[in-house]
Design a protein that fits this description.
heterodimer; A: alpha+beta; B: alpha/beta; 35% helix
Chain lengths: 190, 715
């Protein structure tokens, strides 16, 4: 997972999210191959010496997997963190929203339909200048307020960045099937 | 050494198997192709000399999925300098071990297929061999995984043909596998702990995190340390167990491809026969000794490996679904600007649906076919508004050419359209719509509308008949028709055709500072309104349930004289209007149209007036009321909604006229066109006018009926 935030938040996050690659893999039921162009087999190439040798393991059927990248970016206009993500196949081909929606947990599509808080849009990534999907942030500050409503400490002193982010992530993560372990919240509160 | 003893115990050469390696998998990220496209367009042009690139990989981090050799946007040189030595990426990223590679990007598909793959592979393999020979591979071990990529970027349709090769020096005879075990089983429990700690340390330090080949030296007290390859001699000095470690991208029970050249390095550089490898794999950012393998292998001193003149053979072209063919990926959806514009437009509407209007029917909007009769001030604005609502199928009909005064008020035209006598408006408008939003299906029809009371000569008759038929086909092939011309007569034929076919019809008409925007009611022959006996002309048309159908633009002609002052300005040919009027009227026309589409009764809906409670009795429609007529005035900055029902004597939509048209077709039309009083005679309007003038009593009765229908509410 890559987190892009203003500098002062960086150090806080470094403690929270170990900088390892978050690999989210979904194995789709049917592997579809629509987008690959028809490829003509090169005549006679297999006979050319050097195509393979005994030491090359012949792989069995290759499982098609979908790969997801997640970025957390701070939105200065909405002043909240925003979850950006993209999905692609093992050959780099990007997945479209209707493919992604099939990967998301069943309850998540329900969440997407029912709540006013979550909406997936395709927008230009602010740093990478490529189209990425994001969970639209316009409801975030409202539901974060609701979430922290019951917390007296928060009401008085405001929420520490680390705790804010964990709480925020515990909600948005659900939409994309990522569960926040309870330990993470507990460790932040101490 | 302990290793050699282990290797000889219990295994004869007859039972030894060839050590096999799992081929590397490539993953070229979409960002890589995007950047290559832009470099090709802006920098390289037709230059197809090889480009130095960088691939990235990391140790396997999942027990079911292997890691790839990944190419990203940062894999390509920055681009400003020709000899850019500064990389586009930063070092020390544990998830991105940089590996050098070469890209051959050709200019045509033929050249791509004609590349001499055998010699290209050999050339890259030679580089690896040189690095091994000179010792550079010991200093910068990532060069052992040097790779090759050939590609052809078809920038017209955003297709990319490509083929990766991961050159592996072939050992002849090949290395044999003595034993392969999980690391957690091969090491002692203390060693497992220590090795894990050492590996995690190596992975966490930005100095070593992206160094993919290393040594693990284990002391007699089970303490493990990780060292750079160049410390090999130092490790020999102490009495330690030494394993060769590398980041293994593969998750399977066989080792990954990087081991091949590592073997070549080890055998040629240090001339070892028996070696132990740690195929290092991770899980959740930490060393995973269950997933990692320790492999013991035997290398027979191959011929010529020490002979500096002889370069070993190489293999390594990537298979594509078990065949040695190139791959192709099409990225139009995420790179083609037209497609991106389309998805951005959809996004806007979807946001509206999500936040404000969940019942917004975007499918209906994108599939409805709209015919705009008139491509002037009203036509241009209506077309633009429709596009903004997501309407994608728009036909504009106009006979005229763009005049010099037009661009100011007619928002689809620019000065260029006026030159050389002026382009045909219909064509210019369609072109302009496509320039704004390429995905729109816009068409222009250049033709004149036959008009009643404008007789035609015999020579003209054929073309008039053609025009009638053409107009009939256009109305028939669209779902909604907007009447946006500047004369009353030109609205007649389209109104009749729409009434006969029950198409959604919207009229907008301008005075100097006043406007009318209305939707026509359904025609006399539709399921919701049963046809009454044609003999009974004095009664208004009644439906089964006693509801009257709403009137059309021409039904106004028989409305009580109280409205005639309002009508008079509208009926005149108005080419001079306050500029703000057309956009207002056009916008209202489009909004009215969208409301019709979202009303459960559609064009059969009753006419609402402002502040009325819903006439249908159900919950309030999300887009608000659906009026019949909207009349506004800039003079007062006021606007009102009215309801007018159809008239039995309407020259355009009464059942007499429509049934006559349906029976007699073109003959009827020609009659109406050639004889100015034909329609009025047919509908009895002539009679009605006569009786209105002579009998006050009758007129009053009729007036009462009409009064009920006219509810005017001033806003």
């Amino acid at each position: 997972m890559c987190v892009l935030v203003p500098a002062e938040v960086c150090s806080a996050l470094h403690l929270m999210f170990k900088p390892h690659k978050l690999l989210l893999i979904f194995f789709p039921q049917d592997s579809n191959e629509e987008e690959m162009c028809a490829v003509e087999e090169e005549a006679g190439f297999c006979e050319i010496e050097g195509a393979a040798d005994n030491a090359t393991l012949v792989q069995s059927k290759h499982h098609e997997a979908h790969f997801y990248d997640f970025h957390i970016v701070y939105s200065s206009s909405f002043r909240v963190p925003v979850l950006y993500f993209r999905a692609y196949c093992s050959d780099g081909r990007p997945l479209l929203l209707n493919d992604i929606e099939k990967d998301l947990p069943a309850c998540s599509s329900k969440v997407l339909l029912e709540t006013k808080w979550s909406f997936i849009t395709l927008e230009e990534h602010p740093f990478l200048n490529r189209p990425w999907y994001k969970l639209h942030p316009c409801g975030t500050s409202e539901w974060m307020k609701l979430l922290c409503l019951g917390d007296e400490v928060a009401a008085k002193n405001g929420l520490a960045i680390e705790l804010y982010l964990v709480s925020w992530f515990s909600v948005v993560g659900q939409v994309v099937g990522l569960k926040t372990p309870l330990e993470m919240v507990k460790s932040q509160r101490n | 050494m302990a290793q050699e003893e282990k290797s000889r115990s219990g295994r004869g050469s007859s039972s030894s198997t060839i050590l096999q390696f799992v081929p590397f998998n490539s993953l070229a990220d979409e960002g890589f192709w995007h950047r290559l496209s832009s470099l090709k367009l802006n920098k390289y042009g037709i230059d197809d000399s090889p480009i130095p690139i960088t691939g990235f990989y990391a140790p396997c981090s999942h027990s079911q999925v292997s890691n790839h050799l990944t190419l990203l946007a940062e894999s390509l040189p920055i681009g400003e300098n020709d000899q850019s030595s500064m990389p586009a990426f930063s070092r020390g990223n544990r998830n991105r071990c940089p590996v050098p590679g070469t890209l051959y990007n050709t200019n045509t598909l033929e050249t791509f297929h004609a590349l001499d793959k055998k010699s290209l592979l050999k050339e890259e393999a030679n580089k690896i061999w040189e690095d091994i020979r000179t010792g550079r591979a010991v200093e910068d071990s990532a060069v052992l995984s040097r790779f090759l990529l050939i590609s052809f970027a078809d920038l017209k349709n955003w297709s990319f043909h490509y083929w990766f090769a991961f050159p592996a020096l072939v050992l002849d005879p090949p290395a044999t596998l003595v034993e392969s075990k999980r690391a957690s089983e091969w090491f002692t429990p203390e060693e497992v702990k220590s090795v894990s700690v050492a590996c995690n340390g190596w992975r966490n330090s930005s100095l070593t995190a992206d160094v993919p080949f290393f040594l693990i030296s284990i002391a007699s007290n089970s303490h493990a340390t990780i060292r750079h390859l160049k410390d090999w001699e130092a490790c020999q000095a102490d009495n330690q167990k030494v394993l060769f470690g590398f980041y293994d991208p593969c998750h399977e029970k066989d080792p990954g491809w990087p081991l091949r050249n590592f073997l070549a390095l080890i055998s040629s550089r240090w001339n070892l026969k028996s070696v132990h490898f740690l195929c290092y794999r991770e899980s959740r950012g930490f060393a995973d000794m269950e997933l990692s393998l320790v492999i013991e292998a035997l290398i027979t001193a191959p011929q010529g490996l020490n002979d500096r003149q002889l370069v070993p053979n190489a293999v390594g072209w990537e298979k594509n679904k078990n065949k040695y063919v190139s791959r192709c990926i099409n990225l139009a959806k995420s790179m083609d600007p037209t497609r991106l514009a389309e998805s951005a437009a959809d996004l806007n509407l979807k946001l509206m649906r999500w936040r404000a209007l969940p019942s917004l029917n975007l499918d209906k909007l994108s599939s409805v076919k709209c015919l705009l009769i008139g491509a002037g001030t009203l036509g241009c604005q209506v077309a633009r508004m429709l596009m903004a609502w997501g309407v994608r199928k728009i036909t504009l009909l106009d006979n005229g050419r763009v005049a010099m005064s037009n661009p100011l008020r007619q928002s689809l035209y620019t000065l260029d359209d006026c030159l050389n006598g002026g382009d045909f408006k219909a064509f210019a408008a369609a072109k302009s719509l496509k320039r704004i939003f390429p995905a729109v299906e816009a068409k222009g029809e250049v033709m004149a509308i036959p008009m009643p009371g404008h007789p035609v000569t015999n020579q003209e008759e054929k073309s008039v008949v053609d025009d009638c038929n053409r107009l009939y086909d256009l109305v028939d092939s669209h779902d909604a028709v907007f009447l946006l011309t500047d004369t009353r007569e030109s609205r007649w034929l389209p109104t009749l055709l729409c009434a006969s076919a029950n198409k959604i019809t919207i009229t907008a008409a301008l005075g100097f500072d006043s406007f009318l925007v209305m939707r026509h009611g359904p025609g006399p022959f539709s399921s919701a309104h049963a046809k009454t006996s044609s003999a009974d002309m004095d009664n208004l048309t009644l439906s089964d349930k006693g509801r009257k159908r709403l009137g059309c633009y021409f039904c106004n002609d028989v409305v009580a004289p109280t409205d005639s002052t309002a009508n008079r300005t509208l009926d005149q040919q108005c080419t001079v209007t306050r500029p703000g009027l057309a956009p207002i009227a056009s916008s209202l026309a489009v909004e009215l149209f969208v409301s019709i589409l979202h009303h459960p009764d559609g064009m059969f809906a009753e006419g609402d007036i402002t502040n009325s409670t819903s006439s249908s009795g159900s919950s309030e429609p999300p887009l608000g009321i659906l009026p019949h007529q909207i009349r506004g005035s800039l003079f007062q900055f006021s606007q009102m909604t009215l309801v007018g029902h159809s008239s039995n004597s309407c020259t355009a939509c009464c059942d007499t006229v429509v049934s006559e048209y349906r029976e007699k077709g073109i003959e009827f039309l020609l009659q109406a066109i050639n004889h100015p009083t034909y329609l009025e005679d047919l509908t009895g309007l002539t009679e009605l006018k006569k009786s209105a003038n002579s009998f006050n009593l009758d007129w009053d009765d009729e007036k009462d009926d009409y009064d009920d229908d006219d509810d005017c509410v001033e806003i």
